[in-house]
Amino acid sequence: MANLAVYAVSSMNSRGRVIFEDLPAGRSEFQRDRDRIIHSSAFRRLEYKTQVFVNHEGDLFRTRLTHSLEVAQIGRSIARSLHLNEDLVEAISLAHDLGHTPFGHAGQDALNGCMKDYGGFEHNLQSLRVVDVLEERYAAFNGLNLCYETREGILKHVAKKNIEKLGELGIRFTQHKRPSLEAQLANFSDEIAYNNHDIDDGLRSGLISLHQLNEVSIFSRHLAQVKLRHPLIPERRMIYETIRSMINTLATDLIQQSLINIQAAQVDSLDAVHAAPPLIGFSERINQEQQQLKKFLYDNLYRHYRVMRMNSKARHTIEKLFSAFSTEIRLLPSEYQIKYTQEGYQVIADYIAGMTDRYAIKEYQRLFTITEN
Ligand code: MG
Description:
Layout: H1 29-38, H2 41-45, H3 64-81, H4 86-95, H5 104-114, H6 123-134, H7 148-154, H8 160-163, H9 171-174, H10 181-205, H11 210-213, H12 217-229, H13 235-265, H14 270-275, H15 284-302, H16 305-327, H17 334-343, H18 346-353, H19 357-368
Helix pairs in contact: 1-4, 3-4, 3-10, 4-7, 4-10, 5-16, 7-10, 10-13, 10-15, 12-13, 16-19, 17-18
The structure holds magnesium ion (MG).
């Protein structure tokens, strides 16, 4: 890739793949990773998994698929400005939610609770499991055999008890080393994407109002600018314009502040990035505003009674499925029963985590409802 900074990840300084493969023709190693992620079945299932709003609530709300595409889009454009590896940021962004359960965070919390005596359940560890083990499409290996740096980027954080299982990937957590700038960037792109699209979806659903959002400084500041420039603009466009300029402000701030951090730390190689403190970040002002926005969304959207009711149903569904399978393994599809003999309850977690929202709802009906036909 042309014009990469000395501190970027490249095919030259990559640690490569667990199983050696010939160099790809006509594309970079990280383009190959991205392509493999897009062709995976876990990626296609993201279309029917909840972000905040359960899939059947409306066609216009974000799903995990559209969320992942937005993260990749924001990440790529910031990566280009910082001369980082765009293909790697794109691959990490597209893969970051592959391990998510149905029903968003409520589903993940419920499955974690069910698995607490068997190692727990963490969605980003599960995303890694999808690309390392669960996808079955290649003749020579399980999983997608992705480059080290893509896998490192997927694994944002991990509980202490799970570090040992990770081998080479776990070392940076014990040594307190930082992941690549591309991984750090994908993480911030995730945050920029979900904060902004949750405002949009929250307003569209009617669960939060423009009036309430006025107490959030980053929103009210941008809204006032839009109103000043376009006094007669219809409300829906006004919201889009406000969100658009917020994303622009956040991306620009992230680029400027990260460049300041990179220069101050004088990093001149990928190794220097690993040893330095986190370098991708917002300015202090934007940081504070982001905290305020997150708190607002938490209090008013994620804790809204209608979201809480959906979460409660999601928890009930996941717990009942887990309890049925763990009590009677023969309820699992045959291929999972075979794996169960080697891997135990992890296989139940894999099966449930792989479900889309609607598949989980159907599976619940198949297990607990007797119908005439
Ligand atoms: Mg995400």
